[in-house]
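Weekly structure sync, notes
Attendees: PL (lead), two postdocs, one rotation student
Agenda item 3: pending single-chain targets
PL asked that the sequence for the first pending target be pasted directly into the notes so everyone works from the same version. It is reproduced below exactly as submitted, 210 residues in total.
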Amino acid sequence: MTYFSSRGLAEPIRLILAYAGVDYEAVHLGAYNRQDQPEPFKQLVASGVLPFDMVPMWREPGGLQVTQSAAVIRHLARVHNLCGDNEQQRTRIEELVEGFSDTRSGIQAAAAQPDKAAARQDVETKVLPKWLGYYEKILKTQNSKVLVGDRVSYADILLYYFIENVTEQKLFKLDEYPFLTALFKEIGAHPGIAAHTQNPNRYPVQYVFN
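Predicted structure, written out during the meeting:
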C-alpha cells in the first residue's frame, strides 16, 4: 500500500489489514504538505498510475489497483469476510459506516470556527456526544459488542479507530458509554490490532486542535 508517512486516510485500511492478518508492502511517500508535496508523490502523479492523483493506493499481485480509500476499505472487507453474512447485514453495515462521514463533517464544521476554544468545546460537548451516542444506542439495543450480527465487521473496526482517534486527542471520554467501551476493548484486544497499535513505529495521531 502506498501512502504518505502519516495515519491519515490509510490508517483504517492498515487496521483492517492488521485484523485480517495480511502481510503487505508499505510504500511511504514522505510527509504530506499541501504547498510542497513530497517528491515521491509528485513522481507517482507524473507516472499516470493514479486515476485521481490521490492516495492511498492498494495494489495486489494479480494486477488489481484501487485508490479511493473508501473503495479500498470495502474491497478488503469483502475479500476478508468483514461485510456481514447476508445482504441485509451488508446494507446495515454500509449505513453505519456512512454515519462516520457525517460525524467527521460535524467535526470539520465545528473546527472551522475562528474561535478555536469554542470550536473544541462544540466538538467535545455537542458533536461527539451526539454522534457517538447514536452508536452507543445501537449497541445497547442489541446488547452486543459489535454493531451488526454476531461477529466483527469493518464497521466495528472503523468505529474502533474513530474512538481511538478522538480519545487520544482528549476530545471524548468513554466513561459514560459502556457499550462503546466494550466494543473498543474487544477490537483492541485482537492480536493483529494490538500488534499494530502498540508498534512503537506507528505514526502519531494527527490533532484537530493543536
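Discussion points:
- The chain has two domains: 2-80, 87-190.
- DSSP finds eight helices and four strands in the chain.
Action: rotation student to compare against the earlier draft before next sync.
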